[in-house]
Amino acid sequence: MGKFERTHAVIAAIAHHLPARELTNEDLASELGDWTPEKIFEKTGIRTRRIAAAQECASDLGVAAAQRLFEGGACDPGAIDFLIFCTQSPDYFLPATACTVQARLGLPTSCGAVDINQGCSGFVYGLALAKSLVEAGTASRVLLVTADTYTKFLHPRDRAVRTIFGDGAAATLVVGKEAAEESIGPFVLGTDGRGACQLIVPAGGLRRRASAETAVALEAEGGNWRSAQNLYMNGPEIFNFTLSAVPPLVEQLRLKCNGGVQEVDYYVFHQANRFMLERLRNKLKIAPEKFCIDLEDCGNTVSSTIPLALERARRAGRITSGQRVMLVGFGVGFSWAASMIRVSF
Amino acid sequence: MDAEVSKSFLAKLADVFEVDANTVTPDFPLAARWDSVAVLTAIALIDEQFDVTVPPDELTRCASAADVLALVDQSVGLRAPGR
Fold this sequence. Notes:
Number of strands of chain B: 0
Largest interface: A-B, 16 and 14 residues
Number of domains of chain B: 1
Structural class of chain B: mainly alpha
Distance between the termini of chain A: 28 Å
Largest sheet of chain A: 5 strands, mixed
Oligomer: heterodimer
Order of helices and strands of chain A: EEHHEHEHEHEHEEEEEEHEHHEE
Strand content of chain B: under 5%
Number of strands of chain A: 15
Shape of chain B: globular
CATH class of chain B: Mainly Alpha
Number of helices of chain B: 4
Strand content of chain A: 15-25%
């Protein structure tokens, strides 16, 4: 018996933008002293990262990514009826970055626009929201922009984070299409706020306002330096969280997809760093050719790693139309999210 | 822990600290060796070998390889059933 067609959300296009300035392992080695460029690459899988300029904010990166998407002919800005802007490094406390981006992109004033604040899980959360908006009939063309400039939070002498994070943005177009099968979903989402203190910028918000005192950098573990206004990452705790949370997350999603009988053609996990990805791949027994590792030239761009890797995998022919790809985001929060998508862009 | 298992684990622990495989005996001193990379690699190794995650602060309190073996034993014992 044939299935009835109804409106399903599909990813119609993805584009990304990286800032111009580079920070190579050679730069880091000469600045920080104790690690060689080769050792940084060996431990992280990253050779260079892109760094936003002093006056370049998440909105600027996101606008550039969206303009690239429009230039690619995916759709006209006038056709967008909802904008989701995902960032943890917004231009202002208020208004929402999405509102300023609506005007800059020339999206209609009839367009809904909201920010969401999630990091490494943000793209998959954004997809869940975009799908819901489209399939409920609230919107028909959702522009999901992920953009982060974490490097602005980093203390220059905190090599644990400087070796890993880079800035970047991606724009993803989610539209409705009449089809018998879903192209985005199912989803498995989760949260454990007990991990909030493990990856955090402690000061600069309203709970602890930026002051002369919070600006003072102190030497912390392993000779790294940071102030309360800088990003703090407890690497080992994050790693433990990932090792414990991600395998059951993948298993739950597999079970949710028709009891796990459907083949997964490719896996795109949040590109945290190569070491963590290799451990997860090993633990989950996923073949290397089915598992994306793509961060050598841009580092961990937080909310944009998954769309960026997806777009590049599609361009390089590592994934093809109709294939089923599992997306898995996990990190700051702690927050996690996994989804299946069918390649439709 | 089984003697063979602990012997092969110690040989792998040697990789974590980038020393020769037979250097790491139970009394091998670790107090000064826990940098961030060593902690991550040791956590990964223990997870791979025993399917258990150990708390980082307890790991960095291990002053010798024997302490690491004891921590692993304890963590395996405390592991939630059915994990």
